[in-house]
Specification:
- 32% of the residues lie in helices and 17% in strands.
- It is of the alpha/beta class and 219 residues long.
Amino acid sequence: MQTDKHRSRPVVSSQTGPHANLPVLVKRHRSHVWQQPIHAASRAAFEFVFDWLDPNKPLILDSGCGTGHSVLALAMRYPGAQVLGLDQSAARLQRAPDLPVNARLIRARCEDVWRLLRRTETHLNQHYLLYPNPWPKPGHLARRWHAHPAFPDLLALGGRLQLRSNWKIYADEFRAALQMYGRTPSPVVSFTPDQPLTLFERKYARSGHSLYRLIVELC
Protein backbone atom coordinates (compact mmCIF):
# COMPACT_ATOMS: atom_id res chain seq x y z
CA MET A 1 0.00 0.00 0.00
CA GLN A 2 1.32 3.43 -0.88
CA THR A 3 2.05 5.69 2.10
CA ASP A 4 0.98 9.32 2.27
CA LYS A 5 4.66 10.27 1.92
CA HIS A 6 4.71 8.80 -1.58
CA ARG A 7 1.17 9.77 -2.55
CA SER A 8 0.80 12.59 -5.10
CA ARG A 9 -1.69 15.32 -4.31
CA PRO A 10 -4.39 16.02 -6.92
CA VAL A 11 -4.42 19.33 -8.75
CA VAL A 12 -6.25 21.99 -6.75
CA SER A 13 -7.68 25.09 -8.41
CA SER A 14 -10.45 27.63 -7.94
CA GLN A 15 -11.27 27.14 -11.63
CA THR A 16 -14.33 25.00 -12.24
CA GLY A 17 -14.07 24.95 -16.03
CA PRO A 18 -12.08 26.37 -18.96
CA HIS A 19 -10.82 29.89 -18.32
CA ALA A 20 -13.05 32.67 -19.70
CA ASN A 21 -10.02 34.59 -20.99
CA LEU A 22 -8.66 31.73 -23.10
CA PRO A 23 -10.27 32.99 -26.37
CA VAL A 24 -8.70 36.43 -25.82
CA LEU A 25 -5.18 35.01 -25.51
CA VAL A 26 -5.61 32.60 -28.41
CA LYS A 27 -6.82 35.41 -30.67
CA ARG A 28 -3.86 37.58 -29.64
CA HIS A 29 -1.29 34.88 -30.36
CA ARG A 30 -2.88 34.02 -33.68
CA SER A 31 -2.60 37.65 -34.78
CA HIS A 32 0.93 38.47 -33.60
CA VAL A 33 4.21 36.68 -34.24
CA TRP A 34 6.12 36.10 -31.01
CA GLN A 35 9.25 38.24 -31.09
CA GLN A 36 11.05 37.20 -27.90
CA PRO A 37 14.69 36.30 -28.65
CA ILE A 38 15.62 32.64 -28.47
CA HIS A 39 17.84 31.90 -25.48
CA ALA A 40 21.47 31.27 -26.37
CA ALA A 41 21.62 28.04 -24.35
CA SER A 42 18.60 26.64 -26.19
CA ARG A 43 20.10 27.57 -29.55
CA ALA A 44 23.42 25.92 -28.69
CA ALA A 45 21.69 22.75 -27.52
CA PHE A 46 19.62 22.61 -30.69
CA GLU A 47 22.66 23.10 -32.92
CA PHE A 48 24.43 20.31 -31.06
CA VAL A 49 21.66 17.83 -31.86
CA PHE A 50 20.56 19.10 -35.27
CA ASP A 51 23.21 17.14 -37.21
CA TRP A 52 21.97 13.97 -35.51
CA LEU A 53 18.49 14.40 -36.93
CA ASP A 54 17.91 12.21 -39.97
CA PRO A 55 15.26 13.61 -42.36
CA ASN A 56 14.65 10.08 -43.63
CA LYS A 57 13.51 8.82 -40.24
CA PRO A 58 10.33 9.73 -38.34
CA LEU A 59 10.98 12.24 -35.57
CA ILE A 60 9.18 11.93 -32.23
CA LEU A 61 9.42 14.88 -29.86
CA ASP A 62 8.90 14.54 -26.11
CA SER A 63 8.53 18.09 -24.78
CA GLY A 64 9.12 18.46 -21.06
CA CYS A 65 10.53 14.95 -20.79
CA GLY A 66 11.78 15.33 -17.22
CA THR A 67 14.10 12.46 -16.31
CA GLY A 68 13.83 10.98 -19.80
CA HIS A 69 12.12 7.73 -18.85
CA SER A 70 9.39 8.47 -21.41
CA VAL A 71 12.07 9.04 -24.05
CA LEU A 72 13.47 5.58 -23.32
CA ALA A 73 10.01 4.02 -23.51
CA LEU A 74 9.20 5.73 -26.81
CA ALA A 75 12.59 4.86 -28.33
CA MET A 76 12.06 1.19 -27.51
CA ARG A 77 8.48 1.28 -28.78
CA TYR A 78 9.50 2.93 -32.08
CA PRO A 79 13.00 1.63 -32.92
CA GLY A 80 12.78 2.91 -36.49
CA ALA A 81 12.21 6.50 -35.36
CA GLN A 82 14.38 9.12 -33.71
CA VAL A 83 13.18 10.34 -30.31
CA LEU A 84 14.24 13.73 -29.00
CA GLY A 85 13.53 14.70 -25.40
CA LEU A 86 13.48 18.31 -24.22
CA ASP A 87 13.66 19.63 -20.70
CA GLN A 88 15.14 22.77 -19.14
CA SER A 89 16.02 21.16 -15.81
CA ALA A 90 19.60 19.91 -15.50
CA ALA A 91 18.71 18.16 -12.24
CA ARG A 92 15.98 16.09 -13.91
CA LEU A 93 18.06 15.24 -16.97
CA GLN A 94 20.94 14.06 -14.80
CA ARG A 95 18.63 11.30 -13.57
CA ALA A 96 18.02 10.01 -17.09
CA PRO A 97 18.49 6.31 -17.87
CA ASP A 98 20.87 5.05 -20.54
CA LEU A 99 19.30 5.57 -23.95
CA PRO A 100 19.53 3.60 -27.21
CA VAL A 101 21.15 5.11 -30.30
CA ASN A 102 17.82 6.36 -31.66
CA ALA A 103 17.23 8.72 -28.72
CA ARG A 104 18.73 11.98 -27.47
CA LEU A 105 18.11 14.40 -24.63
CA ILE A 106 18.87 18.11 -24.67
CA ARG A 107 18.56 20.77 -22.04
CA ALA A 108 16.58 23.56 -23.63
CA ARG A 109 13.36 25.52 -23.39
CA CYS A 110 10.58 23.77 -25.28
CA GLU A 111 9.25 26.99 -26.78
CA ASP A 112 12.69 27.84 -28.18
CA VAL A 113 13.19 24.44 -29.77
CA TRP A 114 9.71 24.52 -31.28
CA ARG A 115 10.58 27.77 -33.04
CA LEU A 116 13.95 26.46 -34.19
CA LEU A 117 12.40 23.28 -35.57
CA ARG A 118 9.80 25.36 -37.37
CA ARG A 119 12.46 27.62 -38.89
CA THR A 120 14.36 24.59 -40.19
CA GLU A 121 11.10 23.22 -41.65
CA THR A 122 11.38 20.07 -39.56
CA HIS A 123 8.17 18.05 -39.47
CA LEU A 124 7.28 15.79 -36.58
CA ASN A 125 5.83 12.33 -36.84
CA GLN A 126 4.61 12.40 -33.24
CA HIS A 127 4.69 14.92 -30.39
CA TYR A 128 4.12 14.11 -26.72
CA LEU A 129 3.18 16.57 -23.96
CA LEU A 130 3.15 14.33 -20.92
CA TYR A 131 1.83 16.00 -17.79
CA PRO A 132 3.00 19.57 -18.38
CA ASN A 133 2.86 21.94 -15.43
CA PRO A 134 -0.86 22.80 -15.34
CA TRP A 135 -0.36 26.19 -13.66
CA PRO A 136 -3.74 25.72 -11.93
CA LYS A 137 -4.11 29.21 -10.49
CA PRO A 138 -6.48 31.22 -12.74
CA GLY A 139 -3.96 34.07 -12.87
CA HIS A 140 -1.41 31.74 -14.45
CA LEU A 141 -3.47 30.99 -17.56
CA ALA A 142 -0.89 32.57 -19.89
CA ARG A 143 1.74 30.07 -18.71
CA ARG A 144 -0.23 27.07 -19.94
CA TRP A 145 0.97 25.87 -23.36
CA HIS A 146 -2.38 26.35 -25.10
CA ALA A 147 -2.46 30.01 -23.97
CA HIS A 148 1.25 30.63 -24.59
CA PRO A 149 2.58 32.69 -27.53
CA ALA A 150 4.55 29.63 -28.70
CA PHE A 151 1.38 27.61 -29.29
CA PRO A 152 1.25 28.46 -33.04
CA ASP A 153 4.83 27.13 -33.38
CA LEU A 154 3.85 23.91 -31.63
CA LEU A 155 0.96 23.42 -34.05
CA ALA A 156 3.10 24.20 -37.09
CA LEU A 157 5.37 21.22 -36.36
CA GLY A 158 2.59 18.84 -37.38
CA GLY A 159 2.43 15.17 -36.58
CA ARG A 160 0.26 13.29 -34.14
CA LEU A 161 0.11 15.27 -30.92
CA GLN A 162 -0.77 13.51 -27.67
CA LEU A 163 -1.39 15.38 -24.43
CA ARG A 164 -1.77 13.65 -21.10
CA SER A 165 -2.78 15.36 -17.87
CA ASN A 166 -4.20 14.59 -14.44
CA TRP A 167 -6.22 17.85 -14.52
CA LYS A 168 -9.18 17.58 -16.88
CA ILE A 169 -9.63 21.35 -17.16
CA TYR A 170 -6.15 21.61 -18.68
CA ALA A 171 -7.02 19.04 -21.32
CA ASP A 172 -10.41 20.66 -21.98
CA GLU A 173 -8.76 24.07 -22.44
CA PHE A 174 -6.15 22.58 -24.75
CA ARG A 175 -8.89 21.04 -26.86
CA ALA A 176 -10.79 24.34 -26.98
CA ALA A 177 -7.65 26.18 -28.12
CA LEU A 178 -7.09 23.62 -30.88
CA GLN A 179 -10.62 24.18 -32.12
CA MET A 180 -10.03 27.93 -32.18
CA TYR A 181 -7.16 27.20 -34.59
CA GLY A 182 -9.47 25.19 -36.80
CA ARG A 183 -8.15 21.80 -35.70
CA THR A 184 -10.30 18.75 -34.97
CA PRO A 185 -9.03 17.00 -31.85
CA SER A 186 -10.41 13.82 -30.40
CA PRO A 187 -12.54 14.08 -27.26
CA VAL A 188 -10.76 14.23 -23.93
CA VAL A 189 -10.95 10.73 -22.49
CA SER A 190 -10.11 9.16 -19.16
CA PHE A 191 -7.70 6.24 -19.44
CA THR A 192 -5.63 3.78 -17.46
CA PRO A 193 -2.11 3.27 -18.81
CA ASP A 194 -1.00 -0.33 -19.36
CA GLN A 195 2.60 0.76 -18.94
CA PRO A 196 3.09 4.31 -17.58
CA LEU A 197 5.27 6.43 -19.85
CA THR A 198 6.60 8.70 -17.12
CA LEU A 199 7.43 8.47 -13.43
CA PHE A 200 4.76 11.11 -12.84
CA GLU A 201 2.17 9.03 -14.68
CA ARG A 202 3.02 5.99 -12.56
CA LYS A 203 2.85 8.05 -9.35
CA TYR A 204 -0.44 9.70 -10.32
CA ALA A 205 -1.99 6.35 -11.21
CA ARG A 206 -0.84 4.77 -7.94
CA SER A 207 -2.23 7.77 -6.05
CA GLY A 208 -5.67 7.20 -7.54
CA HIS A 209 -5.75 10.24 -9.82
CA SER A 210 -7.95 10.25 -12.90
CA LEU A 211 -5.74 10.52 -15.99
CA TYR A 212 -6.86 12.19 -19.20
CA ARG A 213 -5.67 11.96 -22.79
CA LEU A 214 -6.20 14.10 -25.87
CA ILE A 215 -4.99 13.26 -29.38
CA VAL A 216 -5.01 15.42 -32.49
CA GLU A 217 -3.58 14.87 -35.97
CA LEU A 218 -1.73 18.05 -36.97
CA CYS A 219 -0.46 16.85 -40.36
